[in-house]
Every structure is written in structure tokens, then in C-alpha cells.
Backbone:
């Protein structure tokens, strides 16, 4: 007998083919994963009925099967974040490959990878494995047909940037054989020191915490189609939000409070991550149609005045430049 210990945990992304939830291709490094939780709900249906002469439950039947989860990682690239935005494609090649992401609505097919009925979102597979000594002892769960639900980029002073992404999957399969191999990416992940934010042309140089959330409010329907599994998920209303905690400074206080909050003036913002001087690891998120919905300005006995600004965003688009390393080509997604 062997216990499953944390150092043998592994999370791998896998490409999917032009058919929704059909796996193809090799393993892809997702980033420096620090946590992955899977909610594998069988939703069994308890039955009680007359005539059994028993106060306990009578039957337990198989109900609708749901697979959801949350993955947290320090990003070395923003591939799965781009998928949450919508349409992803490579705009250039060479030493620094330019990847772009733009929002799409339900009237557009994103690529060949969204072919098929019911116009699915772009999807991918996650393999979560726990390895133990011996043959046939591995604990491997593979979730196919994953689409991002709520995705947050979180930058905190003095720390690595992290991504928290919840998802809806279609199926989960278990195996105890070999795990999918993946090449470790040794690139330095994005750090707080590579992060800058501008709001309405104003540089927010005293930001302490920044969270950009892209929420597709995905629903996984269970149609009467002969299957217990989720049918093709579909997105609900899109919610893009930005939360910024900062030390209030005179250079930006008037614009943020009076112009953008009190007068409800619309503005654009840019959240930029520039990790290298050569531009080979650089991402820029363009936030348009921004409006501040709340702004706390407490007066305290000690320390600088700290404010938290909450922003609703109409549209998000992004660009990222990465070195031409195998596995970083966004286009197959």
C-alpha cells in the first residue's frame, strides 16, 4: 500500500479536436499550478415511497452528472485566460509570437474547434493525476469538454501573479495507468513587479491589489437526450469587473472620485504585465467602457488613506507576446 503524496500530483492540459470534448494532441504545461479541486457530483436521486414498511430510504438512482472545478496557478502565459475572453488566434510568428483575444457573442463560431451542433465555447481537457509506487496504482481523473466559467487574474504586491479559474466540464473518466507526459516550463512567472495599471490615462502607481475577473456565467444543461452528462454548455450574461485597492494619491484622487465615480464618466483602462525587457513575455489587457460602481475612502488614525475601487467593464480584449517555444502556440486552442 502507498499513500498519494503532494509531490507526485500533476495537472496537465490537453488539446481537444474539432469535436466538442474529444481529446487530441499532447500534454501542455498550464503554468505553476498550486491548487486544483474537482467537484465530481453524481447527484444521486434518493427514493422513498409507500408500501415498503420502512422509514429509511428505499432506492438510490443515478442522477444528472456534473463536473466542475477550480484551478489556481501562477501564469507563465495567459493561454486559458485568453480562452475565457473568447476568440483566440496567433497574429504573428517568429522570435516573439503575438497572440490576441477578443470577445465573441453567441452568434459567432470562434474557430474549427467550436464546430458541431449547439455552438459550443472553445474547450480543452484537464488531466489530474496522483502517482504512487507500483503498476496500475495511479489515481487519474480526466475531465473533457472544459469551458472557463469565472476567471480572475490577481496581482498582489510582493507576490507572484496568480490565476484562479472555475470551469464547467462535460465528462470525467478515471484510470490507473500511465499519466500524460508534459515538459516543464522554467520561464519565470509574471510577478507583481511586472504589473502596471492605467485608468483613463492615469497611472495608478500606488496599487496594492488588483483583480480582473472575466465571468461568462456558464450553464451546463441536462437535456432529455439519453445521457446523464452535461450537454454543450452555453454562456449567460458576461460580467467583467476590476477591483483595485490602492493608497489614495493626489495625482489621481480627483479623477477617480469626482470624474469617474460621482459624474459616472466612462473611461478605458489597461492592465499590463511586462516580464522581460525583450518583449518575449508581455501581456496587455485592454478594458473599455469602464465605470466605477463604488469607491471607499475611509479616514483612519494611522497610515495612508487606502481606497478600494470597484469597476464594471463593458469589453475586454488582450494581446500577449511569448517566445516561440513548443507548446506556447495558442492557435490550437
Residues:
Amino acid at each position: 500500500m502507498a499513500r498519494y503524496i503532494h509531490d507526485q500530483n500533476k495537472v496537465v492540459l490537453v488539446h481537444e479536436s474539432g469535436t466538442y470534448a474529444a481529446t487530441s494532441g499532447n500534454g501542455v504545461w498550464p503554468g505553476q499550478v498550486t491548487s486544483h479541486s474537482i467537484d465530481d457530483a453524481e447527484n444521486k436521486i434518493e427514493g422513498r415511497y409507500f408500501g415498503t414498511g420502512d422509514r429509511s430510504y428505499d432506492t438510490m438512482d443515478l442522477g444528472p452528472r456534473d463536473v466542475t472545478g477550480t484551478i489556481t496557478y501562477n501564469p507563465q502565459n495567459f493561454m486559458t485566460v485568453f480562452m475565457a475572453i473568447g476568440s483566440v488566434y496567433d497574429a504573428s510568428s517568429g522570435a516573439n509570437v503575438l497572440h490576441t483575444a477578443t470577445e465573441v457573442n453567441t452568434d459567432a463560431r470562434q474557430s474549427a474547434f467550436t464546430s458541431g451542433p449547439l455552438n459550443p465555447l472553445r474547450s480543452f481537457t484537464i488531466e489530474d493525476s496522483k502517482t504512487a509506487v507500483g503498476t496500475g496504482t495511479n489515481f487519474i481523473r480526466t475531465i473533457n469538454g472544459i469551458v472557463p466559467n469565472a476567471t480572475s487574474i490577481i496581482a498582489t504586491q510582493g507576490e507572484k501573479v496568480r490565476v484562479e479559474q472555475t470551469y464547467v466540464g462535460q465528462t470525467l473518466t478515471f484510470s490507473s495507468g500511465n499519466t500524460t507526459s508534459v515538459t516543464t516550463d522554467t520561464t519565470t512567472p509574471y510577478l507583481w513587479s511586472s504589473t502596471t495599471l492605467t485608468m483613463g490615462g492615469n497611472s495608478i502607481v500606488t496599487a496594492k491589489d488588483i483583480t480582473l475577473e472575466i465571468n461568462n456565467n456558464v450553464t451546463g444543461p441536462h437535456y432529455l437526450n439519453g445521457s446523464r452528462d452535461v450537454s454543450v454548455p452555453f454562456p449567460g450574461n458576461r460580467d467583467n469587473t476590476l477591483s483595485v485597492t490602492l493608497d489614495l494619491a493626489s495625482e489621481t484622487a480627483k479623477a477617480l472620485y469626482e470624474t469617474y465615480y460621482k459624474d459616472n464618466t466612462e473611461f478605458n483602462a489597461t492592465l499590463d504585465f511586462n516580464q522581460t525587457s525583450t518583449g518575449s513575455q508581455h501581456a496587455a489587457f485592454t478594458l473599455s467602457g469602464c465605470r466605477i460602481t463604488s469607491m471607499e475612502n475611509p479616514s483612519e488614525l494611522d497610515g495612508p488613506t487606502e481606497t478600494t475601487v470597484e469597476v464594471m467593464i463593458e469589453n475586454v480584449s488582450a494581446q500577449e507576446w511569448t517566445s516561440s517555444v513548443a507548446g506556447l502556440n495558442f492557435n490550437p486552442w
About this structure: The mean pLDDT is 89. The helical segments are 79-85, 250-262. The chain has two helices and 19 strands. The chain has one domain: 9-41+64-323.
